[in-house]
Amino acid sequence: MVTANGDEDTDSVSHQTRDADTPDAGASIDDIGCVEILKREQNGGDLSLRFDVERTKVIWSRRSTLSKENPVQGAGNETPAAITADAGVTNTDDGDKAVDALARVIEKKDFAEMSVIGQFNLGFIIVRRGIKKTRKGSDNSDDLFIVDQHAADEKYNFETLQATTKIESQKLFRPRPLELTASDEMLAKENIDILKQNGFEIDVDPEDAISEGSRLMLTAQPVSKSTTFDMKDLEEVIHLLRDRPGGQMVRCSKARAMFAMRACRKSVMVGMPLTLSQMTSVVRHMGTMDQPWNCPHGRPTMRHLTDIRSRDSRSKEDVDWSSFQ
C-alpha cells in the first residue's frame, strides 16, 4: 500500500497479503489486520475498504469470552458482563432480553450526552457514551453503541404521529346508540377528546341525559383512504383505555399499522448518507421516545458494541509478584 508521502509501506503490504480465509483461532484482539484501501474519492474523501468479516467474527467471539472470564476491575455494577452481552450485537435470538438489558444500562438522558462517531455502511450510526457520574459514584464504562438510522428515525416519527395525529372523521347520517357497560360508558365520557383524536365522536342522548344510565350516541367515525374502521375499533380503543392512566393517548391496531406505514415512508432510509447534524438529531430524538428500543415493525433500533476501556483497564491491573516466588 502507498502511504500519503508516496512511499510504499512494505509492512502494511505484507500484512494484508496474509490468508484472510483462514483466521488464526488463537489470534488476539490486537491481531486484526489493517484494512486495505481499495479506492479513495478525490472530492469527498470517502474510502472504499476491504474488510475481513469472517476473521472479525472469530476475534469478536474470543473477545466476548475473555470479557466474561476477566471482568474489568473497578467498573460500576450497572453494566456487568452478562448484561452487556445481552444488549450486544451478538444477541440475535432474544429481542426481549436485549431490550431489558438496554433499558437497565441506558437512561433517556444519556442520549442527549452521547457523541456521534460517524456513519457505518450508510445504514448505522456509531455513538459513544463516555464515563458519567451516577448517584452511586462513577460509572467507569466507556461504551460504543450502534444505532440503526432507519429504525430509530421511524420509531420517533411513529410515536410523534401517535401522539399528535387527529384521524379524519365522517359524520353519520343518523347517530348510532352505543351499547356499553356502565363502566365502559363512564370511561368513554371521561376520554371524549381521545376518542375524537381517533376519529370517533360521541354525544350523550339528550332524552336520557337525566337518567343514571344515560346512553351515548356515536355521531361520527374515522375514515381513511387505505383503512376501513368499524365498531370493533371503537371497542378496542375503550378496552385499551382501561389499562392506561387518564389522558394518555391510545390507538387501535388499525391506526397503529397506518401510522407505522406513514412513519416508514417519511424516515431516513438505509443507504442514505447523513451529515453529522442529521445523525445527531436521530440520536437525540431517541431520548424523547416512550419506547426507543424497537421500531413499530419490531426491528431493533440499537445494540451495544463494546466497552472501549475494557482492554486498557485489564492491562493496568496490579500484578501480584509474590505469586511468582
UniProtKB/TrEMBL annotation:
Region (Disordered), start-end ranges: 1-27
Superkingdom, natural source: Eukaryota
A single MF term (Gene Ontology): ATP-dependent DNA damage sensor activity
Coiled coil: none
Gene3D superfamilies: MutL, C-terminal domain, dimerisation subdomain, MutL, C-terminal domain, regulatory subdomain
Pfam families reported for this sequence: MutL_C
Any one GO BP annotation for this protein: mismatch repair
Any one GO CC term of the record: MutLalpha complex
SUPFAM superfamilies registered for this protein in UniProt: DNA mismatch repair protein MutL
Compositional bias (Acidic residues): 1-11
MutL C-terminal dimerisation domain: residues covered: 116-274
Protein name, UniProt field: MutL C-terminal dimerisation domain-containing protein
Organism, scientific name: Hypholoma sublateritium (strain FD-334 SS-4)
